[in-house]
Amino acid sequence: MNANTDETVKDEQQPGAGPAPRLLTDDELSRILRDQQFGVLSFVRRSGHPHLSTVLYDWNPEERVIRISATADRLKVRRLRTAPRAALHVQGPDAFSFAVAEGDAEVSAATAVPGDATGRELLAMTPGFDDTGEEAAFLEQVVTDRRVVIRIRVSRLYGTALDVPAAHS
Q: Whole-angstrom Cα distance, residue 15 to residue 2?
């Protein structure tokens, strides 16, 4: 190898010499939200510190609404009732991509009667049940658990991907 080749190899291995992150389109971001099930919900605690919580969520791209089931006594529910700004970070299909959905959150009333509006909304977030007995048991359980629906009306959606070249063999 000559000196020029050695310099080229060293330059390629320098920090920051790789590809820059690529901004994802709205469709790509929505696909990440649709294809994943878990995300990290973020909101601000009364102290001003961020609070992060891993959650199972449901994304409705037509409404641009994220729905999260929670019990009425959780910190996230109490805090989002008084300070409704929230963000959900979702990992993409690889370690090099992500989507963030930001917006104002609203919290439903706790489901109180099996089959009420909140119970039906929670039911719509599930994959479904094979028989009506399982559905009825679910609707009773969410009342017992005092479940609510956190709805984040997404006003900003952003994220990036890092298109890394395939590893050399």
A: 23
